[in-house]
Write a structure and sequence with these properties.
The complex is a heterotrimer of chains A (252), B (604) and C (115). Chain B has 604 residues and is mainly α. In chain B, 73% of the residues lie in helices and 1% in strands. The mean pLDDT of chain B is 87. Chain C is mostly helical and 115 residues long. Chain C has helices spanning 2-22, 27-48, 71-102. The chains are: A mainly alpha (252), B mainly alpha (604), C mainly alpha (115).
Chain lengths: 252, 604, 115
C-alpha cells in the first residue's frame, strides 16, 4: 500500500474506532462511582480472612493467583526469547551489514562516578529488597522490588563498565535462579493442590495482621516472584548491555 | 484422580517441568531436556484425556485458591471444564507430543529454549481452553503469544524469521489490547470477571457498551484466528517458523481463537445479544466467506509450500467462522469435529514439509520438481492430506462439514454450502497442484518473471539412515484423520458437547451455585452416508482445479484468455500481501472499525 | 459531562497509538507506539474502578471498611504492565537483531515475505 493509502485508511478507521469507543463509554457508570461488587467484597473480607492490610497484594497472589502465575511465565518466556534472539547471534559467525568487531572494553568512568555509584547501589539494593519483602503491609511487592533491584545492573554498567557487570552477575549463575523462581511458584501451586485440594490455596499459618510473616503463602509466593523478576531483569540487562557495548565501539 | 484435581495439574505440571528444564539446561545434555519435555507433554495428554471423560459426565469446576463464590459473586478464578474445552486441551497435548517426537530427529542441536518454550506454549493453550474467567483468558492469550513469538524467531540466523516474528508480535499484541479494552468495558458495567457471573449481570438487553465490548473482544480473538483482514501475520509467521511449531500453529493455535470467540459469545454475551442473532450472523458470515475465498485463491498463487499451507489454514478459518456464525447446535458440533480433523491433516502436511526440508533442503515447489518421483510414502501422505483438506470422506473434515451443512440448511442458508465447498476444494486442489509438480514434474515451466520466494536457509540437516520417527509421526496423524468417520458416536458426542457449550443458564447454576450438571447428552446425529456424495463432489472439484493449474498451459490460447480475469484478481491480492507490518496494523484497525460499525448499525 | 472526558482520554490514546503504529517509519517508533496503545488499557481499567474521595485499598493506616477504590483493577493493571514490559523488551530484541542484519529499521524497506 502506498503511504498515502495507508494514512487514509488508518485515519478513517481511527475515527470510526474513536466514535465506537465513546459510544461504549457512554454506557459506563459515571466516572468515580465504581458500583462494585467485586472490589467491595474483597475490600471487606480480605483484611480479616487473610490478615493482610494490602488488599491489592491479596488479590494478586491469593484471590487471582492464577493470573499472576500466568504473568510470571510470560516474563519467563519473554526473557528466554530475548536470550535466544540476542545470544544465538553471537555464537555463530554471521554475515552482517555492520563491520566486524575486535575485542571490546567498556567506557571509562571517573572516580566521582564510581563513588556515587557505590552509594546508589547500596540504596537501590536496600530499598528494593525492603519494597519487595513488605508486599503484604505496604503497596510494594515482588514485581516492584524486583524491578527496582534490576537498577543494580544498570548502575553497575554505568559506573564500572561491562566487564565488572559480567563478573558480578554471571549469566550461568543467574539463569538457574530465574528458573527456580518461576518453577517454585508452580510448585507451590501443586503442593497446595496436594495438601488441600485447591490449587494455590493459602494453607500456611496466617499470623497476625501487619506482621512481616503473615498471610500464609502470600509472602512465600511474593518472594518467588521477586527472585524471578530480579533475575530476569538482570539477564535482560546483560543481554542488552552486551549489544550496547558493540554499538559504542562502532561510534568511535 | 478426579477431574477437579486434574484440571490444574494438566496446566501446572508442564510449567514446572519447563522451569526445571530451564534451570538444569546448561548442565545436562540436550537429549535429557527433550525427554523431560516429552514426558511433560505426555502427562498433560493423559491428564486432559481423563479430564475429558470426566467432563462428559458433568462439567468440572475448579476454583483456584479454594475461593468458592459467595452470594453469587465470584471471588477467585475458576477453570470451567466442559467436554469441548477438555477435548481441545487434550488435542493440544497430543499435537505437542507429536511435534516434539518429530523434532527429536529433526533438530541436531539447539539450546534449551526449544523444549522450554514448547512446554510453556502448550500449557498456555491448555489453560486457555479450560478457563472460565475473562481476564484469565487474556493472560493465557498473551502467554501463548509470547511463547509463540519467541519460538517463531528460533532460527535467528534467518533474517525473515525475526521479521516474521516481529510482525506476528505487533499484530497479535494490538489484538490483545483490543480484547483488554473490551474486558475493561464489561468490568465497568458488571463489576465481575467470571464469565458466568458477567452473563448473569448483563441481563437480556444490549446497549452500545455491550455491542462495542463484544466487537472489540471478538475482533481481538479473531486476530489470533487469522480472519481476513487480520490474517497477514499468519502468512509471514508460518513461512519462517520452525516446522514442529507450525504443526501447532495451524493445528490448534489459530483454532483456539475461534474457540474463544464461541466461548465468549455463548458463555457471556448470548443472553444480551441473543435477540440480534440475525445481524451478528450477517456480519460474521460476510467476513467468513471472504476469508475462505481469499485464503483459497492465495493458496494457488504460492510456490513456498509452507506459505501455501498457511493460506489454506486461513481459508479453513473462514469456514469455521461461518459455521460459528450459524448459531446452531449442529453447526457448532460440526465445527469442533472439523477443528480436530483439520488439525490432524494440517499437522501431517506440515510434517511432510519438514521432511521435504530435511531431505531436500527446500520448500520451494519449483525447486523440488520431481524429487518425490520415487518416494511413495511422502507422496501418499501429502495426497491424503490434500484430500482431507478438501473434505473427502472418510476424513474428519468431511464429518464436520456434514454437520455444518446440516446446520446451514436448518437456518435456511443452504446456499452457504457452495462457497465453503469451493474454498475447501481450492485448498485441497492447491496442495495437489504442488504435489503434481513435486512428484511427477507436471505443470508449466516456472515463469522467470514470477515472484521467487527467498531460499530458505536449512533449519535441519539430513542424516544417514531413514528418519523413521519423522515418517512415523506424520503417518500417525494422517491415519488418525482418516479414521475419523469410523469413530462411532463421534458426531453424537460432538452434538451433545455443543449443546452443553451453548447452555448458558445451566453454566450459571454449575459455576456459581455448585450445582452438578448432568452427563452429556448424545442426540441423534444426521446420517453421514447421505452426504458422501457431497464429499466426493468437493474432492472432484479439487482434482479438477489442480489439473487446470497443472495442465492448463496446454489448452488452446482462446481458453487461457478466460483466465485473464481471475489472474488479475490474484495479482491484486498478492500486491496487498506486501510484507509491510505497518500495513497490517492499518488493516487491523480497518477491520475492527468495519465490524464495529456494522454491528452498531445492524444491532438495533 | 466533565466526568465523561475521563473516558475520552483512554479511547483517544488507543486510537492515536494505532495511528502512530500504522504510519511509522522506524521499528523502534513502532514498538513505542504499541506501548502507547497499551497505556490506554491501563488508564481505562483504572478509571472504571475509581471512586471519588476514596483511599487506596491498603488498610495499614485506616480501618478496614473505609471507603476504598477497587483493588481488583489495581491488580489487573499490575499484570498488564508486566505483560506489556516483557513484550516490549522482546520486540526491542527483535528490532536490534533486524538492524544488525540489514542495517535498516524502516518497515517499508523490510518486506521480507510478500505475495
Amino acid at each position: 500500500m502506498t503511504e498515502r493509502g495507508r494514512s487514509t485508511m488508518i485515519a478513517v478507521a481511527g475515527a470510526a474506532l474513536f466514535a465506537l469507543g465513546l459510544w461504549a463509554a457512554a454506557g459506563l457508570p459515571s466516572f468515580g462511582h465504581y458500583p462494585g461488587p467485586y472490589g467491595d467484597v474483597l475490600d471487606t473480607v480480605a483484611p480479616h480472612e487473610r490478615q493482610i492490610p494490602n488488599v491489592v497484594t491479596a488479590v494478586n497472589f491469593d484471590y487471582r493467583g492464577m493470573d499472576t502465575l500466568g504473568e510470571e511465565y510470560i516474563f519467563f518466556a519473554a526473557v528466554a526469547g530475548i536470550a535466544l534472539v540476542l545470544r544465538n547471534d553471537r555464537k555463530r559467525p554471521t554475515v552482517d551489514a555492520l563491520p566486524s568487531r575486535r575485542k571490546l572494553t567498556g567506557p571509562d568512568a571517573t572516580d566521582a562516578v564510581r563513588a556515587f555509584t557505590v552509594l546508589a547501589l547500596a540504596v537501590t539494593v536496600a530499598f528494593g529488597m525492603y519494597l519487595g519483602i513488605h508486599a503484604a503491609q505496604t503497596p510494594g511487592g515482588g514485581f516492584q522490588g524486583g524491578a527496582l533491584l534490576s537498577g543494580f545492573a544498570a548502575l553497575l554498567l554505568l559506573g564500572f563498565g561491562y566487564p565488572v557487570l559480567r563478573k558480578l552477575l554471571p549469566q550461568e549463575g543467574i539463569e538457574p535462579v530465574e528458573a527456580v523462581g518461576a518453577g517454585a511458584y508452580a510448585a507451590i501451586g501443586i503442593a497446595t493442590l496436594v495438601a488441600s485440594g485447591a490449587f494455590l490455596k493459602n494453607v500456611l499459618p496466617l499470623g497476625g495482621e501487619g506482621q512481616l510473616f503473615s498471610a500464609g503463602t502470600i509472602p512465600l509466593i511474593n518472594v518467588c516472584v521477586g527472585i524471578e523478576v530480579s533475575a530476569g531483569f538482570f539477564l535482560l540487562f546483560l543481554e542488552f548491555a552486551h549489544e550496547t557495548r558493540v554499538e559504542e565501539r562502532e561510534a568511535e | 484422580m478426579s477431574g477437579h484435581v486434574l484440571a490444574p495439574l494438566a496446566f501446572a505440571v508442564p510449567l514446572a517441568v519447563a522451569a526445571i528444564c530451564a534451570g538444569i539446561g546448561p548442565f545436562v545434555p540436550r537429549r535429557v531436556l527433550d525427554v523431560l519435555a516429552f514426558a511433560g507433554s505426555v502427562f498433560s495428554l493423559a491428564a486432559c484425556a481423563a479430564l475429558a471423560s470426566d467432563a462428559a459426565q458433568g462439567t468440572v469446576v475448579h476454583w483456584f485458591g479454594g475461593w468458592e463464590p459467595r452470594h453469587g459473586i465470584a471471588l477467585g478464578i475458576a477453570f470451567v471444564v466442559d467436554p469441548v474445552g477438555a477435548a481441545l486441551a487434550a488435542f493440544t497435548a497430543f499435537l505437542t507430543t507429536a511435534a516434539m517426537a518429530f523434532a527429536w530427529t529433526y533438530y541436531d542441536e539447539s539450546g534449551p529454549a526449544f523444549p522450554v518454550l514448547m512446554l510453556v506454549f502448550m500449557a498456555a493453550l491448555i489453560g486457555f481452553f479450560l478457563t472460565g474467567d475473562l481476564f484469565n483468558l487474556f493472560v493465557f492469550f498473551e502467554l501463548m503469544g509470547v511463547a509463540a513469538y519467541a519460538l517463531t524467531a528460533y532460527r535467528t540466523e534467518d533474517q525473515s524469521a525475526v521479521m516474521g516474528a516481529f510482525s506476528f508480535a505487533i499484530v497479535n499484541s494490538a489484538g490483545a489490547f483490543l480484547i483488554l479494552l473490551g474486558i475493561a468495558l464489561v468490568y465497568g458495567r458488571t463489576g465481575a470477571l467470571n464469565m458466568a457471573q458477567i452473563a448473569h449481570a448483563l441481563g437480556g438487553h444490549a446497549d452500545g457498551l455491550v455491542v462495542v465490548a463484544f466487537a472489540f473482544i471478538t475482533c481481538g480473538l479473531l486476530v489470533k484466528a487469522a480472519l481476513v483482514p487480520f490474517h497477514f501475520w499468519l502468512c509471514d509467521a508460518h513461512a519462517v517458523a520452525p516446522t514442529p511449531l507450525c504443526v501447532l500453529f495451524s493445528g490448534i493455535m489459530v483454532q483456539a481463537g475461534i474457540y474463544a470467540v464461541a466461548r465468549v459469545y455463548w458463555s457471556v454475551f448470548s443472553g444480551a445479544l441473543g435477540e440480534h442473532e440475525t445481524a451478528l450472523r450477517g456480519v460474521l458470515l460476510a467476513f467468513g466467506i471472504v476469508t475462505a475465498l481469499v485464503g483459497g485463491i492465495m493458496c494457488f498463487a504460492q510456490r513456498h509450500f509452507k506459505r501455501l499451507l498457511a493460506f489454506s489454514t486461513i481459508a479453513h478459518t473462514g469456514i469455521l467462522v461461518c459455521s460459528f456464525a450459524l448459531f446452531r447446535t449442529q453447526a457448532l458440533g460440526g465445527m469442533w469435529l472439523y477443528i480436530l480433523g483439520h488439525g490432524l491433516a494440517k499437522g501431517a502436511l506440515f510434517m511432510c514439509s519438514g521432511i521435504l526440508l530435511n531431505r531436500f533442503g527446500s520448500v520451494d515447489v519449483e525447486v523440488l520438481r520431481n524429487v518425490l518421483r520415487r518416494r511413495p510414502l511422502v507422496t501418499a501422505a501429502i495426497a491424503l492430506g490434500a484430500l482431507a483438506l478438501a473434505g473427502m470422506p472418510p476424513f474428519g473434515t468431511f464429518v464436520g462439514t456434514t454437520l455444518i451443512d446440516d446446520g446451514a440448511r436448518e437456518s435456511g442458508l443452504g446456499w452457504l454450502h457452495y462457497p465453503l465447498l469451493l474454498a475447501a476444494a481450492l485448498t485441497g486442489g492447491s496442495v495437489l497442484n504442488a504435489l503434481g509438480r513435486m512428484a511427477f514434474g507436471w505443470g508449466p515451466p516456472p515463469d522467470p518473471r514470477a515472484h521467487t520466494p527467498k531460499t530458505e536457509t536449512t533449519e535441519t540437516k539430513q542424516h544417514d539412515g531413514f528418519p523413521y520417527v519423522m515418517y512415523a509421526v506424520a503417518a500417525v496423524l494422517t491415519v488418525a484423520s482418516f479414521c475419523a468417520m469410523f469413530v462411532r458416536g463421534a458426531p453424537a458426542a460432538a452434538l451433545g458437547a455443543a449443546e452443553r457449550f451453548m447452555d448458558r443458564p445451566a453454566q450459571l447454576a454449575v459455576v456459581m451455585n455448585g450445582a452438578a450438571s448432568g452427563a452429556m447428552a448424545h442426540p441423534a446425529a444426521p446420517s453421514l452416508t447421505e452426504a458422501v456424495a457431497y464429499g466426493f463432489a468437493a474432492t472432484l472439484l479439487a482434482v479438477a482445479l489442480a489439473a487446470a493449474a497443472l495442465f492448463g498451459h496446454r489448452l488452446p490460447d482462446a481458453l487461457t484468455l478466460i483466465c485473464r480475469g481471475p489472474g488479475a484478481v490474484v495479482g491484486a491480492l498478492r500486491a496487498v500481501h506486501d510484507g509491510v507490518v505497518t500495513d497490517y496494523v492499518a488493516w487491523l484497525a480497518a477491520g475492527t472499525a468495519t465490524i464495529g460499525v456494522a454491528l452498531a448499525v445492524f444491532v438495533r | 459531562m466533565i466526568a465523561f472526558l475521563a473516558f475520552v482520554v483512554p479511547v483517544w490514546i488507543f486510537v492515536i497509538g494505532l495511528y502512530g503504529m500504522a504510519t511509522s517509519r522506524n521499528l523502534i517508533h513502532l514498538i513505542l507506539c504499541l506501548s502507547v496503545t497499551q497505556s490506554a488499557t491501563y488508564v481505562l481499567i483504572l478509571e472504571v474502578g475509581y471512586r471519588l474521595g476514596a483511599t487506596a485499598p491498603v488498610f495499614s493506616d485506616v480501618l478496614p471498611g473505609t471507603r476504598a477504590v477497587d483493588p481488583v483493577v489495581d491488580a489487573l493493571t499490575l499484570t498488564d504492565i508486566v505483560v506489556g514490559a516483557t513484550v516490549t523488551a522482546l520486540l526491542l530484541a527483535f528490532a536490534l537483531r533486524i538492524h544488525k542484519r540489514t542495517g535498516t529499521l524502516d518497515p517499508d524497506a523490510l518486506r521480507e515475505m510478500s505475495g
